[in-house]
Amino acid sequence: MRQTSVDKSITVEHLGESFVDDTSLGCSNQSPSNNDNLEATTRQQFQSTLPALTKLAQEWERLLYSTDGGLNLQKSFWFTMAWQWRNGIASLVTTNQCPGE
Amino acid sequence: MMSIPYMAGFSHPRWQKIKDIMLEKTPGDPKIHRMRIIALLESDFKQANWLLIARPLTWLLEDSDMIPDMQHGSRSGKLCQSTVLNKQLLFNITRYTKETTAFIENDAMGCFDHTANPLVLLIPRRLGLPKSIVNSLAQTWEKTTHLIRTKYGISVESYINDKLNLLFGPGQGAT
């Protein structure tokens, strides 16, 4: 994940947070935004972020598997924060608007 | 005295007896699949593990910068609250910058009690732990006998680690 401060002066890159066996990983969108069509940009960014997250999750699962562990799928979950713009106001998209599958 | 088995590379028979207790994950709801097994080890075995294995290896890993920054568990100078704070700050920044971000919360299954012992024992050797210590530890894990401790006392019957029914993990076996 690459997080930039609001004034773009500080950038921090990290994978997530971990406490013993509980891990929170994430990835942020790296593709540039198109200010002329924000609606399309949101969809495009969403579509490009999900494969990255899938890859990250699979790599993590393989690391655990290599030491005879595994992911507890009943306790693992994912979510995303994507934005839609209406009249200059941003709001989070719903699952129906941007389904992950 | 307690470090003699580790220095000489043998396993003390007393260290090979482990008493298991089961704690309810949900208090008042003792379902068999909702119990947490805790292995009670001999006190001197635990102290020897801490003094001769855990402490030197922790220092080595920290000094060599081998533990990733993202890990907050069981590390001096790190707080479990930091993970929560960092996550909250991350969500706040995402809200401010309106970046598309995706998160996955992973829960590892069998983190402690499902690790392959031969593989686990290779890691401290790789990190420079003396052969006698790893030998002693390997023998202890291999010959471990588990007894069940309840409010009625310690069980007569036991279960052990054998080739047909391998127990994994450092004492807290896959039961």
Distance between the termini of chain B: 32 Å
For the record, the count of structural domains of chain A works out to 1
Q: Taking all residues together, what is the mean pLDDT of chain B?
A: 87
Mean of residue pLDDT values of chain A: 83
User: What percent of residues of chain A are in strands?
Assistant: 25-35%
Strand order of the largest sheet of chain B: 2-1-4-5
So what's the oligomer here?
heterodimer
Commentary on this structure:
Chain A is of the alpha+beta class and 101 residues long. Chain A is built from 1 helix and 8 strands. The longest helix of chain A is centred in the middle third of the chain and has 29 residues, at 38-66. Chain A starts with a strand and ends in a 9-residue tail after the last strand. The longest helix of chain B is centred in the first third of the chain and has 21 residues, at 43-63. Chain B has helices at residues 4-8, 43-63, 80-97, 117-126, 131-142; strands at residues 17-24, 35-40, 101-109, 145-150, 153-160. Chain B has a domain at 4-69 and 113-160. Chain B is of the alpha+beta class. Chain B has a 4-stranded mixed β-sheet, with no helix packed on it. Chain B is 38% helix and 21% strand.
